[in-house]
Amino acid sequence: MNENSHKGEELKGKAKTVAGKATGDTGLEAEGKADQVQAEGKQAGDKVKDTVHGIKDSVKDSSDD
């Protein structure tokens, strides 16, 4: 998955949270919060991967000199 799909998951979780609060459905609210946390974790993982790839590319470029 990519960053955009994780953001979509986060927004879906927010929608569930709001719907759960509006209807008094604590289960739906909790499910929405869990979806948000999971999506945020995936986004953080993607950022780590991007950083590692950036460092790897920098090291590769500097060794080519």
Automatic annotation (TrEMBL):
Belongs to the UPF0337 (CsbD) family. This is CsbD family protein. Residues 1-65 are annotated as: Disordered. It comes from Brevibacterium koreense. InterPro entries: CsbD, YjbJ_sf. Transmembrane segments: none annotated. Residues 5-53 form the CsbD-like domain. Residues 16-27 have a biased composition (Low complexity). It holds the Pfam family CsbD. Residues 1-13, 43-65 have a biased composition (Basic and acidic residues).
